[in-house]
Amino acid sequence: ESNSSVTNIMSLESKQIATIRTLAADVVQKANSGHPGAPMGMAAMAHVLWGEVMKYSPKNPDWMGKDRFVLSNGHSCALQYLMMYLTGYDSVGMDDLKKFRVCRSRTPGHPERHATKGIEVSTGPLGQGISNAVGLAIAESHVAATYNKPDFKVFNNFTYVLCGDGCMQEGVASEACSLAGHLKLGKLIVLYDDNNITIDGDTDLSFTEDVGKRFEAYGWQVLEVKDANHDTEAIKAAIVLAKQETEKPTIIKCKTVIGFGSSKEGTHGVHGAPLGEDDIAQVKEKFGFDSKQKFFVPEEVLSAYRGKIDEGKKMVAEYEKMYSKYEAKYAKEAAEIKRRFAQKLPEGWEDVLPTYKPGDKALATRSLSGKVLNALANIMPELVGGSADLTPSNKTALGCTVDYQSTSPQGRYIRFGVREHGMGAIGNGLHAYGGIVPFTATFLTFIEYMFPAVRLAALSGHKHIFIMTHDSLGIGEDGPTHQPIEQVNIVRATPNVLMFRPADGNETSGAYKVAMEQEDTPSVLALSRQNLPQLAGTSIEGVSKGAYTIVEEKDPDAILIATGSEVALCVEAAKLLEGKFSIVSMPCAKLFDEQPIEYRRKVLPFKTPIIAVEMAAASGWYEYANHAIVMRTFGVSGKGSHCMDYFGFTPKKIAGSIKEWLGNAGKEMKSHGFAVAAQFEEPAKRNLHYVEYI
Q1: Residue 2 — pLDDT band, cuts 50, 70, 90?
Q2: I need a surface site. Which of 3, 224, 347, 476 has the fewest CB within 10 A?
Q3: What are the helix (H) ranges across 245-345?
Q4: Could you list the active site residues?
């Protein structure tokens, strides 16, 4: 697997690049699955980055001072894995390369942040990685402006990206890169694998724009390497120019041939399928290797790359020496950095959470959210985020800081513009950098614009708070295009996301408390536009249980379970009904699912009819209830109260629906004991680390 029997005379650098190409072909062939073309085409770029340019330590992948690297075209991850192996990362050995795409291996089919130590962000859905990188670059500039001193550069790294034509076509990349240009992120350097091939074939089929002119219009520096298959000096020179330009991010158009060396090079035939044994044999012969040797790494190649281990250790030692001096001189700042990057919360932070009592002023939960967010932001400098051009509506403005702009990178409020998808992906990058808890905001309906980023936050374990206001029919006049129906359930169905729909001020504070306590789980807060009363029986603590009883009756005729604004409607509806009705608020179904079965049976006891009320789709409610008063259609434009009345969401109409059901279907169901799934299911387990890797 590692010897020096190369049959022709090549420079060390040529051997290194040839090794990357042949090893990539072997890795994909062994898996009989994957993408060999891009790794072979980008081999020279990868060699320059890992071999000469990037600042990193293979044995200390969490080193705070490292450069950040993102493989945005995640399908080419064989390249990243083999570079991690060659340079000595503990997380990827030769056996791991041979297990590429094997179930439960540490070399999955696309980079996964939690699966392989040293991967910054999970990529694969194209455009996400380059957009994450914008967040990484924002984070670096922000913490540098916050903590660096004239005599100490604690934060001083570049963010490097490899991406391809697919990323250039995705809308999320356009959103994020447009903002990056506006923000003048000079430490963001993108190497664009400009090979003119996608899965369908040549880019002439669908992608003929001038990418360089587009990025110039965004405010980027655009450079070009005409032969990135061979010309490593030109690649290095371009990166030098990129690092010298401090007022603009840089994209380097690197002209390559996909599948370089293959008999199918330059075609889509090498994009998403193994080369085949015969083609690999001729590739190896072309580069002077023994065609019969598999996973062959010349000794001198491995030795050269493994030199990065000692080089990295030396950089870390020098950094730690510098940081010790910084810590001695700036103890307060150093302690805060340590706390933030360890994901620890400030002592006594819960004490600032607002509490409310019945009779306090009725407020929309979006307004209550703004109060909690500002209270926390005052004591938590790690809270950094913003809105997609809806700050006045989302109530997310921070009074304790200025806007983050190129002239004020110490600012903590980001004006994302009307770029929901880019915003979500950038937020994930902010968290991936370390030391930051991002929040991003828009209307709940528009979470669908950014849902791939929400999903990747969940899959990657990003502690990202998504603040989604205007959560129901109650938004009124904007009508069905803006009134969310299915969105609540889409989020609830997504693994490792907490979906909160608080009923009042106490529950809004409780939702933030749980969200801030997470380490690797994102949270979505669905918040009302309309004012809601402060209810008796609600509490910050109750939210952590997911669902709890706020009005308790002995031997009730039925239990009414609701979320958000509908909880208050149920309280009033119960007053209009004959009989006794307990009221359960369920701010977070997923947290309730995680409670012991005894607790769930106490909240939702046997032999008692349970009726759910929510201005959203029915999906999921029949796990908890025998009947659900929900939305079966889209909404309608009109005054919010009129819309709610039209669809039956007033105390009077809810009471009428309950009475009718109890007198008809409810009677028949009584003989079956009103059993629901939540009374029997074992506690759910929310665990990002659900795979036992081999």
Answers
A1: very low
A2: 347
A3: 277-286, 299-329, 331-341
A4: 420
Distance of alpha carbon 456 from alpha carbon 223, whole angstroms: 31
Residues 6 or more apart in contact with residue 652 via CB below 8 angstroms? 573, 576
**Cβ neighbours of 28 (radius 10 Å):** 26
Residue whose C-alpha is closest to residue 381's, from 147, 560, 97: 147
- Token readout for 597 is 């079965």
Distance CA 531, CA 302 (A): 65
The residues with which 465 forms a beta bridge, in sequence order, are 439, 523
Chain centroid to CA 40: 29
> 576 in helix, strand or coil?
helix
For residue 326, report the phi and psi dihedrals to the nearest 5 degrees. -60, -45
CB–CB of 461/688 below 8 Å?
Answer: yes
Given 3-state DSSP classes, what are the helix, strand and coil percentages for the chain, each rounded to the nearest 5?
45, 15, 40
* CA dist., res. 545 & res. 136, Å (int): 34
pLDDT at 30: 98
Q: Which residue has the tokens 């670059």?
A: 137
For tokens 């795409």, name the residue: 101
C-alpha angle 175/177/179, rounded to 5°? 75
Could you tell me which residues are beta bridge partners of residue 159? 68, 188
Rounded to an integer, the average pLDDT of 121-146 is 98
Q: How many residues does the chain have?
A: 694
The model's pTM = 0.97
Residue found under tokens 């939210």: 543
Closest CA to 393 of 412, 410, 428, 369: 369
As a whole number of angstroms, the distance between CA 600 and CA 250 comes to: 55
Task: For residues 412-435, give the mean pLDDT.
Answer: 98
State the number of CA atoms in the 13 A half-sphere of 352 facing the CB: 17
Taking residue 243's Cβ as centre, other Cβ atoms within 10 Å add up to 14
Distance CA 468, CA 578 (A): 37
Measure the CA dihedral 540/541/545/548, to 10°: -80
CB 612 within 8 A of CB 562: yes
- The two beta strands, 159-164 and 68-71, are parallel
Both tokens of 224, joined, read: 């070009």
3-class state of residue 63 by DSSP: coil
Please tell me the predicted confidence (pLDDT) of residue 5.
46
Q: Which residue has the tokens 């089929």?
A: 205
Name the one residue in this structure whose structure tokens are 């193994």.
274
- 497, 524 in Cβ contact below 8 A? yes
Reduce the secondary structure of 197-265 to three states and give it as a string. Answer: EECCEEHHHCCCCCHHHHHHHHCCEEEEECCCCCCHHHHHHHHHHHHHCCCCCEEEEEECCCCCCCCCC
pLDDT in tens, 206-215: 999 999 999 9
Q: Are 499 and 589 in contact (CB under 8 A)?
A: yes
Of the candidates 138, 7, 669, which has an alpha carbon nearest to the alpha carbon of residue 423? 138
Residue identified by tokens 């959203």 is 616
Of the candidates 577, 647, 590, 579, the one whose C-alpha atom is nearest the C-alpha of residue 613 is 647
Tens-digit pLDDT profile for residues 570-590: 999 999 999 999 999 999 999
